[in-house]
């Protein structure tokens, strides 16, 4: 069992990275092999450029940096994308990761041939200032679910299971005792999730989890 977490936050000690590491720490305790890909720390280029376009059209090779990322996730049994929600969507660097790495010729093929993520599990771990219920009642959760879970990973990538986990009610930059305790509860839950994933005893994933 291999579990890879991809994070997107420029702050080295962010709760985003802590969330990714908590999931992986739990998975490692459960016996899984793990890897963290910190897009910001690694200086990943999110811009879909002419090399990417040429490859998409079948007129050139996969860009080397995108291919290097693909090598790191292609054998993952579980791929976790961990990111804060910015303006009701994902940070640009995570969108660029999907554009450039989760792309045609790797994660899916134009003729419908299963790609590298077919039959795998995907966890979407989203950090938010508001609570999960507000995202659901406002329609934002539905928009994110349709874009990421249903269309990108279930339809195109043919993933077997895709789950959304909200790490919600966060107060960015607040380091008081109550805020730390609330964050710690999320991290404990993510570590438990990691152990469950490593054990392979998770039930079929639905749309949302807490």
UniProtKB/TrEMBL annotation:
Signal peptide start-end: none
Keywords associated with the record: Oxidoreductase
GO cellular component, one term: cytosol
Molecular function as annotated in GO: NAD(P)H dehydrogenase (quinone) activity
Name of a matching Pfam family: Flavodoxin_2
Highest rank taxon of the organism: Bacteria
Domain Flavodoxin-like fold span(s) in chain numbering: 1-187
Family: Belongs to the NAD(P)H dehydrogenase (quinone) family.
Protein name: NAD(P)H-dependent oxidoreductase
Organism this protein belongs to: Bifidobacterium apousia
Organism ancestry: Bacteria, Bacillati, Actinomycetota, Actinomycetes, Bifidobacteriales
């Amino acid at each position: 069992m291999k579990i890879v977490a991809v994070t997107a936050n420029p702050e080295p000690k962010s709760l985003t990275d802590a969330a990714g590491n908590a999931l992986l720490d739990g998975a490692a305790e459960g016996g899984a092999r793990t890897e963290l890909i910190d897009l910001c720390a690694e200086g990943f280029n999110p811009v879909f450029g002419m090399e990417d376009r040429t490859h998409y059209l079948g007129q050139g090779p996969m860009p080397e940096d995108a291919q290097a990322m693909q090598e790191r996730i292609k054998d993952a049994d579980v791929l976790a994308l961990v990111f804060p929600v910015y303006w009701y969507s994902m940070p640009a660097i995570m969108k660029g990761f999907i554009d450039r790495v989760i792309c045609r010729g790797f994660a899916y093929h134009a003729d419908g041939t299963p790609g590298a993520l077919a039959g795998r599990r995907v966890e979407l771990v989203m950090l938010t200032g508001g609570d999960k219920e507000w995202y659901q009642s406002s329609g934002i959760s539905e928009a994110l679910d349709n874009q990421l879970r249903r269309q990108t990973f279930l339809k195109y990538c043919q993933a077997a299971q895709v789950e959304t986990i909200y790490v919600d009610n966060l107060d960015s930059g607040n380091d008081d005792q109550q805020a730390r305790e609330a964050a710690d509860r999320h991290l404990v839950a993510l570590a438990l999730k990691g152990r469950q994933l490593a054990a392979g005893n998770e039930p079929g994933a639905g749309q949302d989890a807490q």
